[in-house]
Amino acid sequence: MNFSVIRAMIRIRLLRVFRDRSNLIWLFVMPMVFSLIMGQLMGDWDSSSASNKPRFMVYDLDGGPAADRLLAPMVDNDFFLLVRADSTVTTERARLLVEEGRITAALFIPSDFSAAAEEGRSASLELFYNSERLSSQTVRTQLDESLLKVNTLTSAYSLVSTPDSLGNIPLGHSAALDEKVFQEGLSNPRVTLNVRTLGRIEKKEFALNRSAQHVGPSYTLFFMMMFLMMSSKDLVTERQDRTLARLMVSRATNVDLVLGFFLGGLILGMIQASVLLVLNMLPPFRVDYGDSLMGLALVVLLFGGFCSAASVLLGSIARSGPQADGLGMTFTMVLAALGGLWWPLEIVPGFMQKLGYSLPSGKAISVFHDMIGRGYGVEELSGWLIGLAVWFVGTMLLAVWQFRRVAAV
User: Architecture of domain 50-187 in CATH?
Assistant: First the structure.
């Protein structure tokens, strides 16, 4: 292996790119401009947006004051949207809606609920929820808290009794209940517990809450892929100018030439990705990539390796510079669109998600989503990273095979 040839090819490629200042625009400026514009267009994905909240359906056959008291604390919640249905459905239909994920939970309130509460009789509610969904778990927790309040108030009213003709009140009862005092005591208990939730929230739903968390990494990957694949025309030019043939005469092997061109692209991609990822950590993006520095390094390295190997492959297949440009742009756009770099794969139909997750672009952006939204480390990300490694190795083997066929021609 001729390391002097490899170093020379890397140096020449980097100098060729950075001496042309127009390349700096596509390397660093345009990705940030696209991230800013697309982030504004996509808006905010915070769960407090009513249009994005999972629906908690309440089928209220009562409509009385007890039902109102039960649901009042749950009306304004960050994790779900309470909807009081104007018509009812069967319990089988409600169960199916929850199981399919179309709603996060369903509550049935019987028609005699308020009457039973006023008379001190028992009443039963029916709830369907999915214990694996964060929003559904929140519904269950909030409902339990609200039921505790209603049950406590109902029990307190059972201790109230009207005095008889002699003014006597039964033992254990009182003449009246001051509900204001009750509410104040419930809202301001004598003993309180302060709880803090640490770390990211584990959930199977879409884990990001700001568009910047997607567009920052996605356009970093997109422009890195585009720049490297479009640079495949440089390899075509060197083939046409017989530069590679002259290098082979100087005892440079096919492996030396492939490694020189590949490593030059990989180093270029690492420089570009490092700068863009750091810029995305600053205002107004403020992207937090999580705690796994190793996961971040591996996804950038493997995706950069795939893109650089693909540029060698395309440069070996194309017969002219314009053809290399066309192939590079086509592959970039297809992988970006289908792999979730333009929009999150979580919002597309299921069959499109399966296709997107199978592509290297889909695997790479999924690593970022899981690091940013769920705080995953290398162990949890291993499936995506192994898939990226397979794409990289397979593309590199194809590139070496194709290059050997055409290098000396």
Answer: 3-Layer(aba) Sandwich (3.40)
Give residues with Cβ within 8 angstroms of 284, minimum separation 6.
36, 212
b/e per residue 79-88 (b: at least 16 CB within 10 A): bbbbebeeee
| Edge-first strand listing for the sheet containing 105-109 | 81-84, 55-60, 105-109, 126-129
Based on its alpha-carbon atoms, the radius of gyration of the chain, rounded to whole angstroms, reads: 31
Our measurement of the distance from residue 291's CA atom to the centroid of its chain's CA atoms, rounded to an integer in Å, reads 16
In which element (H, E) is residue 1 found?
none
pLDDT given at position 48: 45
SS (H, E, C) 311-370: HHHHHHHCCCHHHHHHHHHHHHHHHHHHCCCCCCHHHCCHHHHHHHHHCHHHHHHHHHHH
211-253 pLDDT per residue, tens: 899 999 999 999 999 999 999 998 888 877 766 656 655 667 8
Contact criterion met (CB below 8 Å) for 32 and 289: no
Mean pLDDT across the chain, nearest whole number? Answer: 84
In 3-state terms, what secondary structure has residue 281? coil
Model pTM above 0.85? no
Is 28 in contact with 276 (CB distance < 8 Å)? yes
How many other C-beta atoms are found inside a 10 Å radius of the C-beta of residue 234? 20
Query: DSSP per residue over 218-251, as a string?
Result: HHHHHHHHHHHHHTHHHHHHHHHTTHHHHHHHTT
Domain ranges within the chain, ordered by starting residue: 3-45+208-406, 50-187
Bigger pLDDT: 143 vs 202: 143
Of 389, 388, 393, the C-alpha closest to 363 is 388
